[in-house]
Amino acid sequence: MRIIYPKNNAQVTDTTSIIVEASDDKGVVKVEMYINNATSWDRTFYVEPYRYLWTTPQTQDSTKYRIYAKAYDGDGNVTSSNVVDVVVYRFGAPSNLSVIPINDGMLQLNWVDNSVHETGFIIEKAASDGIYLPLNTVMPNQTTYFDSSVDTSQAYSYRIKAVFDQHVSAWSPTAKINFVKSLYFNKLMKIVSSAAPGYPLPFVREQNRVTWCINRNWDGKFIKTNSFQNNYELLSTYGRYSALKWNPESNVYALGTTSGKMHIYDYELIGLVGYYSYQFPNAIVDISFSNDMELLAMDNANNIYLLDITNETVTKTFTMNQDSSIAFSFDKNSGFIASAGMDSSINVWHISDEETLQSFRIHDFKFIQILFSRNGNFIYGINGADPNIYVINSRTGDLETTLYGNSDAISFIAMESTGNHLFSGDNAGKFTVWSLKDHSEVYSNIDLLNQKIIAISSYNYSADKIGVSTVSQDGNIRDWLIEKRWLSL
Q1: Fold annotation for 2-88
Q2: pLDDT of residue 67
Q3: Is the per-residue pLDDT at 114 higher than 50?
Q4: 186-486 has which fold?
Q5: Looking at CB atoms within 10 Å, which of 76, 266, 361, 472 has the fewest?
């Protein structure tokens, strides 16, 4: 047996795959991978492939690790692999990217360098068409760049990533600037209409707030204020909106329609501005972003599409072997996909080789939606028939626990960006926030709508404020602000 990846004395960054090759004439019954003489359940394999996506610990930069593996055959014999030494370099994406106008012909970019051993930074720029093109590659440790290739009639977006030899970091969050606001308004008028007429009725004129007391988990009495911020309807000739996902890293929405149209929108203070769209063969039933801003879109014809937004191409297509898949999710590092099918199965896929690593069933539930946890160890699922959220071990397929709700049947769940909270919407239009630390309801049954919520995406969360967007059964997209305030007595 041997370790075929990584190579000895390799330099690795935040995540890397460990791949082991093992064979025996008696048959290999188990393979264990050891990192610094320690193994764990998720580094123990009973069937091929023997692969592990290693998220390196947040230790000091340039820390050395020793990797080896052991294989057990049917007679109980143990064989050890070669030993591989690697050095881990912290290679975080640049952050806090900002754009400042210096004059009509120059913009200043500033960012925070989060890597130690980079050899430079790659800067890309997109004009109003949303297509990113290389702008320049600058020196290591540089945190400022001046762009004089600008036109005051254009709106621009920038992103930046660090480079270290053959390695690159993830892209930074984008930074945007527009010289002429009317340019955005012209686009906006083609996409966004006025407020959807007559709905919801309580949120008009002076009746735009709903308040109620919180008497749990707080030292004093609070009220929550549900302010109806926007009620707009996206004009589309491509069918009703059926899926919604917010990406906090890049500040964009992805919206899918019943006719298979995918729209990518940039969320600005003035509203939603569309700059990209893609046509799929069938209705889009779920959407998920990866960390590097690729996008997965699923249709109802048994396919999952891996869409590269930057290059506007479908890079991979996963075709299900079971009945039509109805939900899916990326794990934290985009190394795996989980898909739920009409035959009650959940399958875990490895993206790089498109192989199914795991397949299991939970009580023969047909899960209408599934989500990976932040660390990828668990899958959260709902079946659309009860108010509960089921927590499944993504490695073993075991049901770990159940989050019991007291609402109508849950129709949609979404992960809060830090991974500490889960949002749910139900058939009656109520919204609930769950803590994933103690599996409790932090805020329960917030009354948003009087109809089924079919999609939720969060763009802001704090102890005092929640920003959330919903797609309801009428096909409208609504933007909500939920606040906690002191109760005035």
Answers
A1: Immunoglobulin-like (2.60.40)
A2: 94
A3: yes
A4: Methylamine Dehydrogenase; Chain H (2.130.10)
A5: 76
Give the CATH fold of the 95-179 domain. Immunoglobulin-like (2.60.40)
Of 294, 397, 413, nearest to 348 by C-alpha is 397
The residue assigned the tokens 């692999």 is 81
pLDDT, tens digit, for every residue of 223-260? 333 333 443 444 444 566 677 776 656 666 777 777 77
| CB environment 29-66: b (16+ within 10 A), e (fewer) | eebbbbbeeeeeeebebeeeebbbbbebeeeeeeeebe
Question: pTM, whole model, 2 decimals?
Answer: 0.49
The tens digit of pLDDT for each residue in 412-457 reads: 888 887 778 888 888 888 888 888 888 888 777 777 767 777 777 7
43 φ/ψ angles, rounded to the nearest 5 degrees: -110, 20
Contacts by 419-425, CB closer than 8 A, 24 or more apart: 419/332, 419/373, 419/374, 419/375, 420/374, 421/461, 422/371, 422/380, 422/389, 423/456, 423/458, 423/468, 424/382, 424/389, 424/456, 425/453, 425/454, 425/456, 425/470
Full strand arrangement of the beta sheet holding 369-372 = 369-372, 378-382, 389-393, 399-403
Contacts of 185 (CB under 8 A, 6+ apart): 270
CB 357 within 8 A of CB 331: no
DSSP category for residue 17: E
Which residue intervals of the chain bear CATH 2.130.10.10?
Answer: 186-486
- Give the pLDDT of residue 252: 67
The identity of residue 459, as a single letter, is Y
